Structures are given as structure tokens and as C-alpha cells.
Amino acid sequence: MTFDAFFNGSAARRFLILCLGAVLYGVSLGLFLAPNSIAPGGVGGISIMLNSVFPLGVGSFTMLLNLPLLIIAVLKWGWRFIFGTITAIIIAGLTADASAFFEPAANEPMLAAVFGGAFLGTGCALVFRCGSTTGGTDIVTKLITAKRPHLKIGTLILIIDGVISILAGIVFKNIENALYSLIALAVCSKVIDFILYGTDSARLLIIITEKGTEIADGLLHTIDVGCTALDGVSGYKQDNKKIILCAMKRQTVPAAQKFIFKTDSHAFMLVTAANEIYGQGFKTAE
């Protein structure tokens, strides 16, 4: 079973994965981040700051703060869209509160920031892969981009969460808390990217050559990757060229480059990163 097939299974399996992601999210808050006053952005970060002032659990604050956002989201997109998000928020909140009855998993701030960020990112990514969100910043950015579609979601999340992480240093009156919060945020972001896009670690090759048939045949049968050949005309000499498009795993690129230049030393080739690739050998469309 491939990584993507695992996430594209039955509705029951996807629901269980969503629940697991929510539990990991709650554990990261309750056992790693909150005990060390680390607030890596989002509603979870605000909840950790409020928990240091008011006698209410981090998970309870998380659910309360998400409530008005969920009401807006329901009015905007309907219950069907938001069901998974509500489930994730409730499970994560209850898990975070339950974690308070146990000893912290790490008492050293750096370890708490790294592993807390990793658990947080894993939890978020699992929920995302199931088509839901963990609420908070995700809902806010979706509402903003609905009005301002030209804004990038990743940039908005980074700005909002970064500001919250810096506020943590002010609330806890310790600049180190802000720095640890930013570290946790960075780790969380990297883990999310790895789980969501890491298996797609791929490159897109665009090859312009006069030996299109030989190169296409070699890519298919020697390198064992698919490709598409298009007809083209050079802008300078107006002579006929073949344009070959080929997506492949990153580790396959060196062998492909070696073969291409061995076949046509004058070939013009572009190699660019491909964030997401759908189709045989890559991700499957949900």
C-alpha cells in the first residue's frame, strides 16, 4: 500500500486518522508546549498564554476560542464542510486537558519546542490529509483569502502565528519563550510540509532537443519514467524542435540528466521543483 493510498482509503479509516491527528495535536499542547510556556502560534498558542493567567485548561480554551470561528465557518460553508474540523477541535481539546493530569514529557525547553512542534505538525498534517482542519488560524486564513484570493495562505499563517509566538515572550516576560515558540513553529511547519508534500519530492524536466525520439524512448525504457513529447519551433532559427516534459522522483534526476546529455550534448534542459504531482507513480486524486 502506498503512502497516498493509505490516506485515500475508506471513510472509516480516514476518520480514525483524523482522530489520531487530533490526539497528537492535544498531546503536543498538554505534554510538551504548555508545561514549558511555549506558544507556537494559532489558537493553541493563545490558549497556552491564557492558561498561564486563568485557571482553565489549555484544551478548554482551545475549544472556546474556536467556537466563534466555527459559527462563522458554518454560516459561510455549511455543516458538511466543517464536521471534521469540529471533531478534530473537540478531540484535541479534551486530549490537551487530560494530558494535564500527567507529568510533562519534557522539562527542557529546547526539547519541548522541537518534539512539541513535531507532534503538533504531525497532528495538523494528519487532519489536513483527511480534508479537515484543526480550526483557529486555518479558518481565519480561509476567511481572509475568500475576500482576498491573491494573498498566499502560507504567508498569512506564518505572519499570524509568528506574531502570536512573539506575543508569548511579552506575556511570559521572557524573550526566550518567544524564541522557543518560533522554533516550535518552524519545526511544526517543516513536519507539515514533509507529511503533505515530502513523498512528492519530485522534479519536472523540460527538455528541448532535436533528438526527441531517442530521448523519449530512453526515458521510457532506460530510466523508466514517463514523458510527453510536444512539437516546438525555436525562436532564433525557426527550426523544428521537440519539447519533452518529464516528471520524476528527485533521486532519478542525475541518471536522467546523464542519459539526456549523452544522447544530445546540445539539448536545452530546465529542471524545476514540482510541489505536487498527481498520476501514476505519484499522488492519487482524492
Q: Give the fraction of residues assigned to helices.
A: 55-70%
Shape: elongated
Name the helix and strand elements from N-terminus to C-terminus, one letter apiece.
Answer: HHHHHHHHHEHEEHE
| Mean pLDDT across every amino acid position | 81
Runs in which pLDDT lies below 50 for 5 or more consecutive residues are: none
Features:
286 residues; elongated; 4 strands; 61% helix; Alpha-Beta Plaits; 11 helices; 11% strand; alpha+beta
Overview of the molecule:
The protein is α+β, with helices and mostly antiparallel strands and 286 residues long. It folds into two domains: 3-198, no CATH class; 201-274, 2-Layer Sandwich (Alpha-Beta Plaits), CATH 3.30.70.120. The chain is built from eleven helices and four strands. It has helices at 3-7, 11-33, 42-51, 58-77, 79-99, 109-129, 137-147, 153-171, 175-197, 212-221, 253-263; strands at residues 202-209, 228-233, 240-249, 268-274. A four-stranded antiparallel beta sheet has the order 2-3-1-4, with helices on one face. Helix 6 runs parallel beside helix 9 and helix 8 runs antiparallel to helix 9 (175-197). The protein is elongated and about 75 Å long.
